[in-house]
Amino acid sequence: MLRSLATHNQLPSAGGLQPALPGSILKAGKATGVIALAGACLISILAVPGFRAMKQQDLIVPGPGVTRRIQLSAYFPPLAATPGDTPVIILEGKNPGGTILVLGGTHGDETAGYLSAVVLIEQARVQSGRLIVVPRANASGFTHNMPQEGHPQRIAIETAHGPRYFTCGARVTNPIHQWPDPQVYTLAGSGQKLSGIETRNLNRAYPGRPDGTLTERIAYAFTSLILREKVDLALDLHEASPEYPVVNTIVAHERATDLAALINMNLQAAGIAIGLEASPRNLHGLSHREWGDATPALAILMESTNPAQGRLRGRTSDTLVTEGMDRYYVRASMRNKLSVPFPESGWPLRLRVARHLAGVTEFAKSLGELMPDKTVALRGVPEYSSILSQGLGSFLR
Fold first, then answer.
1. Is the CB of residue 219 less than 8 Å from the CB of residue 300?
2. Which stretches of the chain drop beneath a pLDDT of 70?
3. Diameter of the chain by CA atoms?
4. How far apart are CA 295 and CA 142, in angstroms?
5. Cα gap 140→344, rounded to integer Å
6. 374-384: pLDDT as tens digits
7. Can you tell me the distance from the alpha carbon of 83 to that of 141, in angstroms, rounded to the nearest whole number?
8. Is residue 13 part of a domain?
9. How many domains, in total, are found in the chain?
10. Is there a domain that residue 27 lies in?
């Protein structure tokens, strides 16, 4: 009897028969499986409206300064009817002058760049020259989220007429629109090698290729836009995590260094702490490098601080994106672990948008001072202090 019990309790050898489980355990296991399956189905059903909403473009209300709207495919026709095509908004003054291009939404999860472009479209007026604004540079990136990041699908901005909703997208092109990723992404021309997922990063694809991937074709269309419209100054608006080395910074191509240094001093004098970095000559694919190399435009990239993108953050919610408060970043700041100070008041979206718009305004003003024939006279762009005191929603139509 003892031998029989001992034999029964031994683990079977590979390929041996497993002892039969009691019926109650089998029934409990099946019930648990059914409950888990039902829960997964319920979650999937509840998620469907959110994912469908991401396929719809956010409402942007053109202000009185908008004179024309075209599609990016006008500069590269094969992009038409693809997920990479996106609106290009043009504001033209009555007087001649220069041309400034402002890109928001290169990365769909960098909300301040996107909303800064929206405010320009809805509020800015141009007296001299032209302002070209693209709010969703990589439209495909706004149709999905980054897996496992836990980002909200959209945020709400309160206005006098109720909330306005804006999509929180992803850093890269939707894999449904461009797949598969290579193990190693090799940039055409330079031969620079990057992680495979960067093949879907618009800001690693410049100057682009007409026969490349969807992301490379989007980049090629923007390079063609800069050349055809004879853009004098091209600004790419971004965000980065508080621990990122180049954050709250202007990154300038060497031909734009003098202008960027002047803007840096002007913003510092206005109480806006901001850094200045030179575009690395050996780091390819980025707008501030390739626009400056491939076109006559002065190429600039601007970064603001977004805690929702960092690795030290706590719960990722729409409030983190809009209010920018996070106790873990406050602690990290107290220990001098971040690239920028992180106060208890955080880095709210209104502050990040105010910084970007102050930069755009200063660049336009100083461009005309240095090169009078390239003047782009802007009116109606909300002032830095006004956005902080009145809130971002006060400047959304």
1. no
2. 1-31, 33-34, 36-55
3. 104
4. 27
5. 35
6. 999 999 999 99
7. 9
8. no
9. 1
10. no
Strands (E), the chain: 68-71, 87-92, 95-103, 125-134, 154-159, 162-167, 184-186, 193-195, 233-240, 249-252, 275-278, 298-305, 377-379
Distance from C-alpha of 130 to C-alpha of 121, rounded to nearest angstrom = 12
Type of residue numbered 256: A
pLDDT at 45: 57
pTM of the model as a whole: 0.88
> d(Cα 91, Cα 97) in Å, to the nearest integer?
12
The residue segments making up the domain with residue 211 are 58-395
* Strand (E) or helix (H) holding 228: helix 214-228
SS3 63: coil
Q: How far apart are CA 156 and CA 164, in angstroms?
A: 6
Closest Cα partner for 118 from 389, 387, 347, 338?
A: 387
With DSSP H G I counted as helix, E B as strand and the rest as coil, what are the percentages for the chain, rounded to 5?
40, 20, 40
> Phi and psi (nearest 5°) for 193?
-110, 135
- pLDDT at position 62 is 97
Question: Residue 164 is part of a domain; what is its CATH number?
Answer: 3.40.630.10
